[in-house]
Amino acid sequence: MSGRRELIVVSNRGPVGYDLDNEGRRIVKRGAGGLVTALRPLVSRHDVTWIASAVTEAEQQLAGGGARAERSADGSRYRLRLVAHEPRSYDLYYNVVANPTLWFVQHGLWELKHAPAVGLEAAWDEGYVPVNAAFAAAVLEELESRPDAVVFFHDYHLYLAPRLVREQRRHAVLGQFVHIPWVGAGGWSGLPPRIVRAVHEAVLANDVLGFHTRRWREAFLASCGELGLSTDGTRVTAHPISVDVAEFEALAESEAVLERERELVATRPERLLLRVDRTDPSKNVVRGLEAFGLLLDRRPELRGRVRMLALLDPSRQSIREYAEYRAAIERAAAGVEFRHPGALELRISDDFPRSVAAYKQFDVLLVNAVMDGLNLVAKEAPLVNTRDGVVVLSENSGAFEELRDWVVPVDPHDLDGHVAALERALELPPAERRRRADAIRAQVRSHDLDAWADAQLAAFDGVSTMRP
């Protein structure tokens, strides 16, 4: 376990958010999302100042007051500093550059991208650059009073900030973890060359740059090579993120989950095929639904015995591509239901207890992302499953590198391959199902979230702060 450190954690959204109720009173909301969950061990075990965007009106009201003292869910103290941005700049940064442009490029989805109403280069200059500069300015102010703190940036929202800090603080210890895939040089070809170079040069200002898998690490090194950039000054690592095992197992036995599990058990089919995702084009939901429909077309004896439950969290509906993909999901589901009434249940809502209840009851879990930095569903669901469920896992998910020996692999672009993978998963004998399920559970328990956090921070040990 790493010793206690002074950390400045920097991400677009923070571990808590603030809003105003109907009477204008400020209310606190715990942060959601995989990134916030993943960073919880840092808050509980280190001296953390967390810098995040002020997005809501309530947060903007607080942004001018400096860092606030906060407590995490387990009672740990930390400081939270909110950074306000000019609204138009933040909109261009988030809704034009970060999501969906960088997200689409790094998930191999560029062909789905619509041309933005504002030119990409203008959005970069007027949105992404100034927002990153505001983050860097906040980091530099914190370093004035905490010069020995390790600065730990997160994800694709903040590619430029490390270089902006490095230019002012040559000896600062800087690191960044990229939670999404990285693509090779060819994958960046849709973007203006100056933006591609700026991204790569800026992240190389970090002393440590982390990815989930060797595949994404190697893609980064290859793209730097194509650009003629040396990586000698940056330690590039690969450590897959994981699950807080004790917390997740406790959640699985909470009353909210047990209530939904009782509802599910009362109506469950002989075999339950599950998918839990966001309505994000990268998750490949449409192809998964189509594959299930084809399975029932081709295997009539499965009709009435196998049902699919698709629990989807609505994602980024203010962005055109995401709204269009949700509509495509609903059309695909309607097509399956028309041919096979009662075979598919589609729910689009934010109901995590229901998802965890379904985790416990699945016989086959389909995780078929076009590309994923990791995919925690592939770890969470087997951890609490009670039926020796089989995981059908995309070869392009980051989790595949770690779990490949115990899953049924699927090429996310191959529709017939999906059907064959689902058939194989349904037909695995009980002893083999148990062997695979036990192996995944053992892997997740021995490589938990604390182990990931320790590995990330250990990479800073021995870092030289004497950059030229």
Key traits:
468 residues, Rossmann fold, 2 domains, 46% helix
In short:
By secondary structure, the protein is an alpha/beta fold. It is built from 18 helices and 16 strands. 46% of the residues lie in helices and 18% in strands.
General description of the model:
There is one protein chain. The protein has 468 residues and is an alpha/beta fold. The mean pLDDT is 92. Helices cover 46% and strands 18% of the residues. The chain folds into 2 domains: 244 residues, Rossmann fold; 202 residues, Rossmann fold. α6 links the parallel β7 and β8. It has an 8-stranded mixed β-sheet with strand order 5-6-4-1-7-8-9-10. Strands 13-12-11-14-15-16 form a 6-stranded parallel β-sheet, sandwiched between helices. α11 runs parallel beside α12. The two termini are 32 Å apart.
User: CATH superfamily name of the largest domain?
Assistant: Glycogen Phosphorylase B
What percentage of residues falls in helices of 4 or more residues? 40-55%
What low-confidence regions span 5 or more consecutive residues with pLDDT below 50?
none
Q: Cα distance, first to last residue?
A: 32 Å
The computed structural class is alpha/beta
For the largest beta-sheet, the strand count, sense and barrel status come to: 8 strands, mixed
Number of separate helices: 18
How is the CATH topology of the largest domain named? Rossmann fold
How many β-strand stretches?
16
Task: Please tell me how large the radius of gyration is.
Answer: 22 Å
CATH architecture label of the largest domain:
3-Layer(aba) Sandwich
Strand order of the largest sheet: 5-6-4-1-7-8-9-10
